């Protein structure tokens, strides 16, 4: 990483600049996405979904974004709730990936879910019928 430091006098007339060189440890990272959802608890009417996105480069891990809220749609199964949580988290992760790309930082996205059904659907190689 290259960082140019300036004195307060020259800072007013110039723009500070941070650049990443390809191959720098910071120039490549992994966005780790963890999502989960649940059906409504007793006495509630809406399911809940939550996710967190972590940026990992080397041994450093930083939380980038998270969300925990009621799902806006009515769902009849935990599979549907898990799918909506995963879709929301991946949408945000892709947005962050494109922002990092604009800064010259290459990144990949890794998704983790506890839903066996969603995992099976995402990793299947069979053609849908």
Task: Describe what this molecule looks like in 3D.
The strands form 2 sheets. The protein has a 4-stranded mixed sheet. The chain has a two-stranded antiparallel ribbon with strand order 1-2. The chain is of the alpha+beta class. The radius of gyration is 20 Å and the shape is globular. The protein has a domain at 30-115: Ubiquitin-like (UB roll), CATH 3.10.20. Helix content is 29%, strand content 34%.
List the total number of helices.
3
Order of helices and strands: EHEEEEHEH
Q: Strands across the major sheet, in which order?
A: 5-4-3-6
Strand residue percentage: 25-35%
CATH class term of the domain at 30-115 = Alpha Beta
Offer a quick outline of the entry.
The protein has 129 residues and is of the alpha+beta class. It is 29% helix and 34% strand.
SSE layout:
Blueprint (H helix, E strand, L loop, with lengths): L1 E2 L4 H4 L6 E2 L8 E11 L9 E10 L2 E11 L7 H25 L3 E8 L2 H8 L6
Parallel strand pairs: 3-6
Antiparallel strand pairs: 1-2, 3-4, 4-5
Could you name the key traits of this structure?
Ubiquitin-like (UB roll); 29% helix; 6 strands; alpha+beta; 3 helices; 129 residues
């Amino acid at each position: 990483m290259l960082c140019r430091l300036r004195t307060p006098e020259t800072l007013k007339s110039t723009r500070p600049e941070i650049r990443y060189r390809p191959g720098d440890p910071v120039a490549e990272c992994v966005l780790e996405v963890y999502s989960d959802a649940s059906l409504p608890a007793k006495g509630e009417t809406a399911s809940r979904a939550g996710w967190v996105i972590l940026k990992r480069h080397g041994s450093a891990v930083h939380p980038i974004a998270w969300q925990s809220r009621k799902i806006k749609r009515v769902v009849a199964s935990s599979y549907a709730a898990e799918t909506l949580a995963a879709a929301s988290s991946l949408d945000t992760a892709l947005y962050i990936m494109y922002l990092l790309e604009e800064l010259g930082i290459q990144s990949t996205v890794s998704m983790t879910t506890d839903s066996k059904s969603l995992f099976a659907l995402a990793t299947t190689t069979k053609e849908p019928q």
